[in-house]
Write a structure and sequence with these properties.
The protein has helices at 4-23, 27-56, 75-98, 102-115, 120-133, 136-146, 153-203, 226-232, 242-248, 256-261. The chain contains 10 helices and no strands.
């Protein structure tokens, strides 16, 4: 039966093979070897958790307490298992970044940080994946927590600032497009309303005004003439009666009635 030490070495051998495949650019083979390493180390980690529970209950550990004979792992072995699990998960994150599988990269980096919160590469690669996914706030939080002293952080922060600027510019253009589109819609709506109101006005019957009676015209007053001014002070002469005409004329003069009738 393999000892704890032998099992750890077998798992770490898969990790080394994965590193070689990664250097050669074979991401598929690298992920396969890292997967075998995770299986071996996770099995040991779960076994340690189970043994911890048994020892807490006062039960004797199977196989004695010698780590070389399959007993419980020492504290150094426990730390080695957890540390290497974090390293392998972080390396898997690098593979997923190469494959542009950013969601999976974030997942394995989260697992790495669960085993070792101080793993710098896991947090850095998670920040890279978040940045590529557009999670600028999450990427900035990871990069800020690492600090500028970590290689690559400054370069990633510059990328983040550029992405943030591009996102702001895109949002301004989008909002500007929405606003101009709203103005066009308002103008079109206003034109339709104006057209509708004008059509209502033309179709409605125009009321006929009631006939109005023209006011009577007053004759303009004539200016007084010189003759009228002279006659104004004179008394009207009396009109002679027919008898006066008869008496004043001689017998040979025709009568007024005859003069009026005239000759046939």
């Amino acid at each position: 039966m393999a000892t704890m030490e032998e099992k750890i070495k077998a798992a770490l051998a898969h990790k080394d093979q994965g590193n070689e495949a990664f250097k050669q650019g074979d991401m598929k083979q690298a992920l396969t070897q890292y997967h075998h390493a995770v299986l071996g180390l996770s099995g040991l980690d779960n076994k340690m958790s189970g043994m911890g529970m048994l020892s807490g209950m006062g039960a004797p550990s199977p196989g004695g307490n010698n780590n070389g004979s399959g007993g419980p792992a020492t504290d150094d072995q426990k730390n080695e298992i957890k540390t290497n699990l974090a390293v392998v998960y972080a390396n898997m994150g690098a593979c997923h970044l190469k494959n542009q599988n950013y969601k999976r990269a974030i997942e394995v980096c989260n697992k790495a940080l669960q085993h070792d919160p101080a793993n710098v590469k896991a947090k850095f690669r998670r920040a890279q994946a978040k940045l590529q996914e557009g999670n600028l706030a999450g990427a900035e939080a990871d990069l800020t927590s690492l600090g500028d002293g970590v290689p690559g952080v400054k370069a990633e922060m510059e990328k983040l600032k550029k992405k943030a600027k591009d996102a702001d510019e895109k949002q301004r253009k989008t909002m500007g497009g929405f606003l101009s589109r709203g103005r066009i819609i308002d103008e079109e709506e206003e034109q339709r309303e104006n057209a509708a109101s004008s059509s209502d006005t033309t179709s409605a019957p125009v009321p006929t005004p009631a006939p109005t009676t023209p006011a009577p015209r007053t004759a303009p007053k004539s200016k007084p003439t010189l003759a009228s001014k002279m006659n104004a002070g004179r008394k009207p002469r009396p009109v002679p009666r027919e008898e006066e005409y008869v008496s004043s004329w001689s017998g040979t003069a025709p009568k007024i009635q005859e003069l009026a009738e005239g000759e046939e």
